[in-house]
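Memo to structure team: turn this sequence into structure tokens by end of day. - J.P.
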Amino acid sequence: MEKLEANLNYTFKNKDLLKNALTHSSFANEQKGSAVSNERLEFLGDSVLSIIVSEYIYESFSTLPEGRLTKLRASLVCEKTLCEFSKQLEIGSYLLLGKGEKANGGDNRPSILADAFEAVLAAIYLDGGMEIAKKHVLRFITEELHHLEHENFKDYKTELQEIIQRNPEENLTYVLIGESGPDHNKSFTVEVHLNSNVIGTGVGRSKKTAEQAAARKALELMGIEL
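Reply from structure team:
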């Protein structure tokens, strides 16, 4: 648990909260009442996450209309994104899973990892308060949004795809060419290929961020005004 707390940059006063956050329902069911699953914490964590993310993007993207803010928030709190955050923290290594779930790779299942991220967030919130919880969440989403904060949330991948689709015979793909750093602080490098040619390279804290950076570079090289 100490290593997980180090990854979280937070030391729990009530260790039982963290243990509860890591207890999957499959484990709790096997214990026949002697353990409580993290489902209630997940419920609370979902709400805490939503208010923190909503407040941050509301203040950071003052020119975006409600519809774009909703879309942006959804991309930050979706299962795929939360799973990536959970992997950075190595939460899967500490999950308490039932024997069957563990045998089936539950410690690497996206839905379980995403739910566990929310449960751990709720545990931090209950143990340390909203400001500590906010600091924990912003540590991830500020990096995710870094390349967007000064660019009005432009979706470069979609813009590039729309240009390439004008020529149906062209094929656009994104290729992960490298990653570095520890699991809780990785850096990804992605190339965007037009057929067999590299037309852009990007680096980011997540594959998604790196893909957006690669698409932006490709648009720049094509002379597109951004």
